[in-house]
Specification:
Layout lengths: L1 E13 L5 E13 L3 E5 L6 H8 L7 E6 L2 E2 L5 H10 L1 E5 L10 H11 L4 H14 L15 H13 L5 E5 L7 H16 L3 E6 L2 H6 L2 E6 L2 E7 L18 H8 L7 H14 L1 H38 L5 E6 L11 H4 L3 H17 L15 E4 L1 E3 L4 E5 L13 E4 L2 E4 L21 E4 L2 H5 L14 E8 L2 E12 L10 E4 L1 H14 L11 E5 L3 H14 L3 E2 L2 H45 L1 H9 L4 H42 L8 H28 L2 H6 L2
Parallel strand pairs: 3-8, 3-9, 6-7, 7-8, 16-20, 17-19
Antiparallel strand pairs: 1-2, 1-4, 4-5, 9-10, 11-21, 11-22, 12-21, 13-16, 14-15, 14-18, 17-20, 18-19
Length: about 700
């Protein structure tokens, strides 16, 4: 019964320029089941070309090749893949085993491409390898086997899907004479079991045991001889047993394709085989991911710290209002523009009360009288206009100590929402008349250690402040150390507004001016509820673009904007590094395709579809992304932990806020850039020509 028939088959190769070489010329031949055919001929005669056409590896020919009376030319790509997977079994001279897979895995890979159950694959392959005398070798790698053992593995792989045709290209070319005899005997038994075995060979020994010899010269069949004295191997002596109809039917029913899970396992094997290269690549990508996470964490940590610190100096039922500074709020030259006149205060009060009335809110801003709920505040940068002077007590070692003078970085009047919770010292109180509160910088100024902080309370100092031509000098007492987290290392002073206002009036009179006192730079409205506070704040934000919240809020906004800009810049840098990482992954995967070209050819020869090849390489890039993400997260946690310890030691706090979704984003980005980087290499691998791939060195 004809299983294979070639009718007027011609094959040409394009050479340099427009020249062509005719490898096969009008080849017509047919083959039947149970034949052991040797195709002989000189090098370049067309033997291998004929094998490639029969095996469905090369479809660029003219003429007809019928498989079970169906023209191979009519097959679509999917049908050709199935044809190589189920109808054909290849045995190569160089074995073409995949080196990083075990013997068992090499044999089962055709079944893996058909998505056969793991237990069924192992059972079938183990049984076949046992018949071939390799039962003790199934866990070894190909490099641990002899040439004859490797060829037996190749034969087992060719037989595993129970194909109708075995194509053996110089199956004994790399073997010694003893091993050659063993391999030929196995191939003979396979043919005697009812399969068509076609061998390409130069060996007379191979041709001698064949049932038929086909000789090719210059692309033409010049001899086709069936040997009358061919003797089949008795069934009882065969290693390869004849299958029952039930077993054959079971094999033929396998119509599945490579599953996602199987592709993932194959990809893991491939990655593990080059683990050093992949780990180094993952570390390179992870450094970019770590940079991104740390940049986001720094931005979040610093922003959160500033927001929380500023939030400590506010009250949900107090509206803080100040003028927006057209410039740096620490610049003394803009102080006059920040002051409120009586007219401006009255106008703003009328606007707010009109708003509240329109919203049917019963609260009203009251500027004087017993029910007054509007208070004034004042703040100014006084770097060059104010000092604190301290005269240390005399001691035996230093009977006449020199005075210490420290410039004040910032002067605040105490907001109405300040209370004892804002104090660092356990003793002490909110400053009143002839009293001030200072930041922790006062400790160093007074020559004290952190452990001596309570000794600050009650210390007398001289306060010198200049208001233009007005000079103010007062003996005051330090009532407490206040927690100014933003500026605790700088000299910041809090003073009661009414006390400061009286001092200014006194100084104005002493210098021949009218006692007008202070012009406020802050307005504080004590509301009846958070709802009223939000209503007023929203109105100011939307309708009074010249006004803002408290100085703390302005500083918070300024620092937040700076941090946002800084974070964006760092994120861009991290993005560039991720782009570099993407290119690195692309290059490494592209090189991997080149290194594994022959492996790709082997997979295609046993029926792997383009989709299967693409899926395997895509899974590899996916695993690279997972590995890079995990390494990046580990490095970030380690580096972040070290930085937190360092910052806590140096600053007393760690401005790092590593949120869980930063790690999720990093993992997602790692996977995405890896998969994107793998698109081109996987597509290239899928498009490789199987014939050229198998020739690749």
């Amino acid at each position: 019964m004809k299983v294979l028939e070639l009718i007027d088959v011609n094959k040409e190769y394009k050479l340099a320029g427009k020249e062509k070489f005719k490898a096969l010329s009008d080849v017509s031949v047919s083959f039947e089941r149970g034949e052991l055919v040797s195709i002989i001929g000189e090098s370049g005669s067309g033997k291998s070309t004929l094998m490639n056409l029969i095996g469905g590896l090369d479809s660029d020919y003219t003429g007809t090749i019928n498989i079970d009376e169906i023209d191979l030319k009519t097959f679509k790509d999917k049908q050709l893949d199935d044809y190589r997977k189920k109808k054909i079994g290849f045995v190569f001279q160089s074995f073409n085993l995949i080196p990083h897979l075990s013997i068992l895995e090499n044999v089962t890979i055709p079944l893996t491409l058909s998505n056969v159950k793991e237990s069924e694959k192992v059972e079938k392959a183990t049984k076949l390898l046992t018949k071939l005398g390799l039962e003790s070798q199934i866990r070894k790698k190909p490099t641990q086997l002899s040439g004859g053992q490797k060829q037996r593995v190749a034969i087992a792989r060719a037989l595993i899907n129970d194909p109708d045709i075995i194509l053996a290209d110089e199956p004994t070319g790399a073997l010694d004479s003893t091993t050659t005899g063993q391999i030929l005997e196995i191939l003979k038994e396979i043919a005697d079991d009812g399969k068509l075995v076609i061998m390409v060979t130069h060996s007379e020994k191979v041709a001698k045991i064949s049932s038929r010899i086909v000789e090719i010269a210059d692309g033409k069949i010049i001899r086709d001889e069936k040997k009358a004295d061919y003797m089949a191997t008795p069934k009882e002596e065969r290693i390869i047993e004849e299958k029952t109809s039930a077993e054959t039917k079971k094999v033929k029913k396998k119509e599945g394709h490579l599953s996602l899970w199987s592709a993932l396992k194959l990809s893991f094997h491939n990655m593990w085989a080059s683990k050093t290269k992949n780990i180094l690549m993952a570390i390179g990508v992870s450094i970019s991911l770590m940079s991104m996470i740390l940049m986001l964490s720094f931005g979040s940590g610093l922003t959160g710290y500033i927001t929380a610190t500023a939030g400590e100096y506010s009250n949900p039922t107090v509206v803080s209002i100040s003028k927006k500074a057209n410039g740096n709020p620490l610049d003394t030259s803009i102080l006059e523009a920040l002051k409120f006149t009586e007219h401006e205060v009255q106008t703003l009060t009328d606007e707010i009360n009109a708003l509240l009335e329109s919203k049917e809110n019963s609260f009203r801003v009251i500027t004087d009288g017993e029910n007054k709920n509007l208070e004034y505040g004042f703040s100014t940068p006084t770097i060059s206009a104010g000092t604190v002077v301290y005269k240390p007590e005399s001691t035996e070692e230093e009977p006449n100590p020199e005075e210490k003078t420290e410039q004040i970085f910032y002067t605040y009047t105490t907001p109405p929402y300040y209370n004892e919770t804002h104090l660092v010292t356990e003793s002490g109180h909110i400053s009143g008349e002839n009293e001030i509160m200072l930041s922790k910088a006062a400790l160093k100024f007074l020559g004290l250690e952190n452990s001596q902080i309570e000794e600050v309370v009650g210390k007398e100092v001289t306060l010198n402040i200049n208001f233009g031509d007005i000079k103010l000098s007062k003996q005051v007492t330090i009532s407490a150390i206040v927690d100014i987290s933003l500026f605790e290392s700088m000299m910041v002073m809090y003073i009661d507004y009414n006390f400061l206002n009286d001092c200014v009036k006194e100084a104005q009179v002493a210098n021949g001016y009218e006692a007008t006192g202070l012009s406020p730079t802050q307005l504080y409205i004590q509301t009846d509820s958070e709802q009223t506070t939000d209503l007023i704040n929203n109105y100011i934000e939307k309708n009074r673009k010249d006004l803002a919240g408290s100085v703390e809020e302005q500083l918070e906004k300024m620092f937040s904007e700076m941090l946002n800009t800084f974070s964006i810049a760092l994120t861009v840098i991290a993005g560039i590094s991720l782009a570099v990482a993407l290119i690195m992954i692309l290059v490494v995967l592209y090189m991997s395709v080149s290194e594994r070209t022959r492996e790709i050819g082997v997979l295609k020869s046993i029926g792997a579809r383009k989709k299967d090849i693409k899926l395997i390489f895509s899974m590899e890039s996916f695993l690279v992304g997972i590995l890079s993400g995990l390494v990046g997260i580990a490095l970030t946690l380690l580096t972040g932990g070290i930085l937190s310890i360092v910052f806590n030691s140096l600053l007393g706090f760690a401005p790092i806020n590593m949120l869980w979704y930063y790690f999720a984003e990093a993992m997602l980005i790692s996977v995405v850039i890896s998969v994107v980087a793998g698109l081109y290499p996987s597509a290239k691998a899928a498009k490789l020509d199987p014939v050229e791939s198998l020739r690749h060195e």
